[in-house]
Every structure is written in C-alpha cells, then in structure tokens.
Amino acid sequence: MSAQKPISTTKKEGGVHLPSFSLEEMQKRQELNDKITHDDVARSHTLAWIIIGGIALIVGFAFLYISFKYDSTGNKAFRPKSMEFIVSCISLSFGLFGVIYGTVRTILLSLRIRKAKRELEAF
C-alpha cells in the first residue's frame, strides 16, 4: 500500500466522520473536477473526429477506385481530371486530417485528465 496523507476529520451528529477541508482546498478540488469534466467532454468530441475522418477515408478510397475508368480498348486508365478523382482527393485529405487531429487531441486530453486525477488524489 502506498502511504497517503492522513485526512483530518470532524465529528458530526450520529457519529459520522467527514473530512474537513479548508475553503482553498475545496475550491482547488472543485476546479480539478471541473477540468476533468471539461476535458472528458472534449475527448468525446475528438473521438467523433476520428470516426468522421475514418468514414471520409473510406469514401475517398471508394471515389479513387471509381476514378479508374475503362478506355476504348478495354484497359483501365487513370483519369486525374475526372470529378471522381477530385472528390476522392478532397475526401481523403479531410479524412486524414480528421483522423490525425482526433488521435493527437485524444492522446493529449487523456494525458491532461490523468494528470488532473493524480492531483486530485494527492489531496
């Protein structure tokens, strides 16, 4: 077991012991809890970026496949001036951005939440 800081207690009616904190400690604990809640909601939003980015990548690859068309001899030819290729480039770039942004932001927010929880446990 790890050594923890003893909690000072005050006796209330009925023999129940409640921890007593100073006003500054209570405000700091409330700030940490608010920060954890805010970061957790933000992390949920970044997970949505990952999902939307993944869907955009799938759509982009589908349009990239469609941009290969058969020429008059029956061979598949790549046509970079086709509308399908332009849509695939836009979709792939948006999807890549969404996945990278969501992943990096999720990792950073998870680290911030972990740090705030450790500070909260230190009280």
User: What is the strand content?
Assistant: 5-15%
Number of strands: 4
Give the helix/strand class: mainly alpha
Number of helices: 2
Q: Mean of residue pLDDT?
A: 84
Task: Write the H/E string, N to C.
Answer: EEHEEH
The Rg value, from CA coordinates, equals 27 Å
Largest sheet: 2 strands, antiparallel
| Strand arrangement, major sheet | 1-2
Topology (elements, then pairings):
Layout: E1 9-11, E2 17-19, H1 23-66, E3 68-70, E4 76-78, H2 83-122
Antiparallel strand pairs: 1-2, 3-4
Helix pairs in contact: 1-2
Describe what you observe in this structure.
It is a single chain. With 123 residues, the protein is mainly α. Helix content is 68%, strand content 10%. It has helices spanning 23-66, 83-122; strands at residues 9-11, 17-19, 68-70, 76-78. A two-stranded antiparallel sheet has the order 1-2. The protein has a two-stranded antiparallel ribbon with strand order 3-4. Strand 1 and strand 2 (17-19) form a beta hairpin.
Sum up the structure in keywords.
single chain, 123 residues, mainly alpha, two-stranded antiparallel ribbon, two-stranded antiparallel sheet, 2 helices, 4 strands, 68% helix, 10% strand, rod-shaped
